[in-house]
Amino acid sequence: GENVEQHPSTLSVQEGDSAVIKCTYSDSASNYFPWYKQELGKRPQLIIDIRSNVGEKKDQRIAVTLNKTAKHFSLHITETQPEDSAVYFCAATSGFQKLVFGTGTRLLVSP
Amino acid sequence: EADIYQTPRYLVIGTGKKITLECSQTMGHDKMYWYQQDPGMELHLIHYSYGVNSTEKGDLSSESTVSRIRTEHFPLTLESARPSHTSQYLCASSEKRQGPTDTQYFGPGTRLTVL
């Protein structure tokens, strides 16, 4: 089955810096890669996703890149702000419309 | 407002009790999921359903059971709770369609503590 690895487990940046979180997956049949943000005590919320037919997607300060050959995808956050502090999870499809999640990255943005 | 609802939000119970965690969605979605998550840790799929009368076990072994009698309702039951069941339980749903997976939307979760 699908295995998703996520790095780093923690990431500390200064406000205004960029943050990059990387994930690798094992199942070459995976075709959908969402990223979720989970603030303390709250539910995971989708922030961006990418499907296997594109290599990059951007939404304001957030972008995701996908390298299908290498089986890895990354989340890029530019001009980070304190409210970006949260745990971020990547995920990849496993079988028919199930998701396997990465282990999470705790992002801390210091003012 | 279309959303996913979970009750109770917090539950503290003694060992051996039977409990049911409720999940309802007004999103009109066909697929529903239960995940187990320790605080800040990865999400583990324990049950899922593609529609009424369809239930499957997820990737993480769980002693819980689920039912799907109505499209909007997907309750999870623990027949005899143990301290090892202490965790957060998140319900999610997504549309049913052919092709790539649709977005999963999460409920607010139930934080369960078994003493």
Strand runs of chain B, count:
11
The N- and C-terminal alpha carbons of chain B lie at a distance of 36 Å
The chain-level mean pLDDT of chain A equals 94
Q: Looking at the chains present, what oligomeric state does this protein adopt?
A: heterodimer
Rg over C-alpha atoms of chain B, rounded to the nearest angstrom: 14 Å
Question: Residue ranges of chain B: pLDDT <50 for 5 or more in a row?
Answer: none
Order of helices and strands of chain B: EEEEEEEEEEE
Largest sheet of chain B, in brief, is: 7 strands, mixed
Structure overview:
The complex is a heterodimer of chains A (about 110) and B (about 120). By secondary structure, chain A is an all-beta fold. Helices cover about 0% and strands about 60% of the residues of chain A. Chain A has strands at about 5, 10-15, 20-25, 30-40, 45-50, 55-60, 60-65, 70-75, 85-95, 100, 105-110. Chain A is globular, with a radius of gyration of 13 Å. The termini of chain A are far apart. In chain A, about 35% of the residues are buried. The mean pLDDT of chain A is about 95. In chain B, the strands form two sheets. In chain B, strands 2, 4, 5, 6, 9, 10 and 11 form a seven-stranded mixed beta sheet that branches. In chain B, strands 1-3-8-7 form a four-stranded antiparallel beta sheet, with no helix packed on it. In chain B, a hairpin with a 6-residue loop joins strand 4 (about 30-35) and strand 5 (about 45-50). Chains A and B meet through strand 4, strand 5, strand 9 and strand 10 of A and strand 5 and strand 10 of B.
